[in-house]
Amino acid sequence: MKHIYTGKTKNVYELEDGNYLLEFKDDVTGVDGVFDPGANTVGLTIEGAGLAGLKLTKYFFELLNEKGIPTHFIEADIDKKTMKVKPAETFGKGLEVICRFRAVGSFLRRYGLYAQEGQPLDAFVEVTIKDDEREDPPISEDALDMLGILSKAEYKVLKELTQKIAGIVKEELAKKGIELYDIKFEFGRDKETNEIMLIDEISGGNMRAYKNGEYIEPLELEKLILEG
Amino acid sequence: MKHIYTGKTKNVYELEDGNYLLEFKDDVTGVDGVFDPGANTVGLTIEGAGLAGLKLTKYFFELLNEKGIPTHFIEADIDKKTMKVKPAETFGKGLEVICRFRAVGSFLRRYGLYAQEGQPLDAFVEVTIKDDEREDPPISEDALDMLGILSKAEYKVLKELTQKIAGIVKEELAKKGIELYDIKFEFGRDKETNEIMLIDEISGGNMRAYKNGEYIEPLELEKLILEG
């Protein structure tokens, strides 16, 4: 296999069968040693974060595949901290799609004039461009279409998939008495079928979850969901 | 009449007949003495800027009213540098609506990963929140609706009006060999009819215009359009 990319939280290898292998690292995004799922930099290394991330991702992707929701997931090897995935084409140079159930993070930083911290949001979906240099700017449906990144028809699918998947995660967390505030996804086009599918991961590092009003750290979240 | 508001580029007075009087100042937005229509601060004072802004605004608002496009304009008094307008209710605490024909300014700062400077844009419309503290963040149709600022039906009207008015201004400028790159509008609801109408002004301070590839300063633009 061939190493093709070193990401902030994962290494990516190309396999001989045409699929890809994602190796989960213990690095998580954040700023100055404080975890922040919305951050663009590796803020800290948490021993066990990679394994916890992979376990949760495996759990959720298997659940989604059972429900017939397209994802890139093929299989996971917990011991090796790797996940085998189908090849995907990203939208442009990559987008992040956020689904928000409560106002926190960058939503509040942008719209604090109209929103209170923690106020309920109706599965609100927004898209940001993956562009570290320009701090991941939000982008509208019209701009995505105009710049040739995503057609209007694709945007509709993306938004529906996002709300559906976020709803499933929210429901799973609720079973453990945990409330999902927001979650970030990445999508791509299946290289074989061109179908839009969920890629990347679903882990504590991609969401903000609270229990009894207290924020839950990614590692703790994995324990609560898988062992709790 | 009663002074009710001191804006960056205008003073606002309430008249006894229920209408409002806008007094145009010579202050223009910008940073460190350099004019920038997208800036949030008064960058400099240009003698004659207020008068030039009022003259252009009168010219365009009269043209729009002739074409049956709703605006708040009633009449202008060039000598007093004032304009009488109908009362309007802003959307939330105020929105700015931008129509872009070429990629410059904040569009390029945000989407430079996908756009070249000066690249044609198809009368692209975006909305930003008037919020100096948070640097006028862009906001999507979905967020405007969710936060109760603007309904989806109103957004549709706003976008159509914006493209229509920007198209008229673009055409007027083209008659003088000038190309409109982008323009910023403000809208409000007519307090009597609840109809969405154009408010504020249309002047050199709200647009970027170029002639033979050279940017035209606001005062020069007024001369080229009204005297050229």
Automatic annotation (TrEMBL), chains A, B:
SUPFAM superfamilies (UniProt xref): SAICAR synthase-like
Pathway assignment: Purine metabolism; IMP biosynthesis via de novo pathway; 5-amino-1-(5-phospho-D-ribosyl)imidazole-4-carboxamide from 5-amino-1-(5-phospho-D-ribosyl)imidazole-4-carboxylate: step 1/2
Source taxon at top rank: Bacteria
InterPro entries in UniProt: SAICAR_synt/ADE2_N (IPR028923), SAICAR_synthetase (IPR050089)
UniProt GO MF annotations: ATP binding; phosphoribosylaminoimidazolesuccinocarboxamide synthase activity
EC identifiers of the protein: 6.3.2.6
GO annotation, biological process: 'de novo' IMP biosynthetic process
Statement: the UniProt record of this protein carries the keyword Nucleotide-binding: yes
Keyword set, alphabetical order: ATP-binding, Ligase, Nucleotide-binding, Purine biosynthesis
Chain ranges of the SAICAR synthetase/ADE2 N-terminal domain: 3-215
Broadest EC class assigned to this enzyme: ligase
Known catalytic reactions: 5-amino-1-(5-phospho-D-ribosyl)imidazole-4-carboxylate + L-aspartate + ATP = (2S)-2-[5-amino-1-(5-phospho-beta-D-ribosyl)imidazole-4-carboxamido]succinate + ADP + phosphate + 2 H(+)
A Pfam family recorded for this sequence: SAICAR_synt
Family that this chain belongs to: Belongs to the SAICAR synthetase family.
Identification of the protein by name: Phosphoribosylaminoimidazole-succinocarboxamide synthase
Source organism of this protein record: Ureibacillus thermophilus
Gene designation per UniProt: purC
